[in-house]
Amino acid sequence: MKQRAEDQERTREKIVEAAVALHGTVGPKNTSISAVAKKAGVQRLTVYRHFPDEESLFRACSMHWLQANPPPGIGVWDSEKDARQKTSSIVHALFDYYRQTSSMWRLVYRDIDQVPAMQAPLDDFHEYLAAICDTLIACWQPRGRKSPSLKATVRHVLSYSTWESLSEQKLTDKQMADLGLRWIAAIHAAGP
Fold first, then answer.
1. What is the distance between the alpha carbons of residues 180 and 93, in angstroms, rounded to a whole number?
2. How far apart are CA 38 and CA 26, in angstroms?
3. Residue 25 pLDDT class (50, 70, 90 cuts)
4. Would you call 29 helix, strand, or coil by DSSP?
5. Fewest 10 Å CB contacts: which of 47, 68, 134, 143?
6. Are the beta carbons of 128 and 71 closer than 8 angstroms?
7. Which of 108, 113, 119, 103 minimizes the C-alpha distance to 28?
8. Structure pTM?
9. pLDDT (tens digit, 9 = 90+) per residue, 84-105?
10. Coil, strand or helix: which one is 71?
11. Three-class SS of residue 51?
12. Quick check: 91 and 181 in contact, CB under 8 A?
């Protein structure tokens, strides 16, 4: 019994690793269950036994990939009180993370509209970004003042698409992070 359970777990892991590898090379849109099965060295039916639908496979892939490539921890910046310093630290760390993991993010965001099963796993990452956004807004607006423009700007600065667009302009991570900080500071200074 124990040996069978261990074999099942190894098979499941092989399937997830095969799917992650394919997502990172051809993208989720071009990753078929047949291709995953072939890369994992199993039958298609075996893949379906472990993952009855694409969403369960994509969720497992996302969890596996994020464990191997964890985004910067939210609590790391708790000790920083200055809004500018906290923003600079967060944006630098996040842009560094995007640079290190850009090959996967590029393919995921390219395919997201064509692969509905990717939406739920990606929502988890967007919740992480929303928590960082809330942290920054609380620094810039400590008295609870509401500024939709500030929130929109912070969300824009933190997004992968912003990093990708700025990196195409051949800016360094520091230049991009400094630009993001200036955008946020300017919107804050302008008021609601």
1. 13
2. 15
3. very high
4. helix
5. 143
6. yes
7. 108
8. 0.88
9. 888 988 999 999 999 999 999 9
10. coil
11. coil
12. yes
